[in-house]
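Notebook p. 47: complex prediction with zinc ion.
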Amino acid sequence: MRVLKNENNYLCSYNNFDNDLDNKLMKLKIDTNDLEQFDHIGDNHIGTSFDTPMRDDAFVLNDNEKIEIIRDDVKHIMETLGLDLSDDSLKGTPQRVAKMFVNEIFSGLNPEKKPKASTFENKYNYGEMLVEKNITLYSTCEHHLLPIVGKAHVAYISNGTVVGLSKMNRIVDYFAKRPQVQERLTIQIVKELQRILNTEDVACVIDAKHLCVNSRGIRDIESSTVTSEFGGQFKQKDIRTEFLNYLQLDTKF
Ligand SMILES: [Zn+2]
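Predicted complex, structure tokens below:
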């Protein structure tokens, strides 16, 4: 879909710039108010729900079928931009992008790829906070499909159940591999760990750069976005401060 904006109205065309705009807009069930809303949501980075919005038929197609369709869509975008896909360098790009979307950067949309929740009994009775910090995070902004790169810091206080350390990295990675808004990603990580560990006492802080802010739009390369979610005991000031103080530790090996 191509959208052209002028002062009072929007022109929307689809597939080879069809001129029958009213018809197309009706088919797409888009009116000009919706289009204004799209801009507003994207420009202001507003998330609309805590669960990733998914279609009911999200998994009717298998991964290979999705790759085939996306390959043709990417080809169409590139040709629309005027690129010559017979060039050796560009020829394989639609296939590469389609595979990357399905198998890598958006693979976390598929619940089958969620890390298995293997937990252990807290036999050594460690009753203090456990912090897994500086978890490298690569995600994708759902408003612009540009990268989000940063660090996640996760903590919990065990109520009898513990989880393998790398499991926390894997959970961060799973929810990051979706089109995301950072606030939702932070909450999804906390909710999943609360479920696995059977406790409310879980916290997560994410500090990340959004390339849609750093490389386009306002183009501020220095700014980063910090989000946090504090569950259970982490809502208490002293517990929260303890967690945040650990994040200040300079860990170098
Ligand atoms: Zn964005």
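Notes: Residues 71 and 95 are 5 Å apart (CA to CA). The chain is about 40% helix and 20% strand.
Next step: compare against the earlier run before touching the bench.
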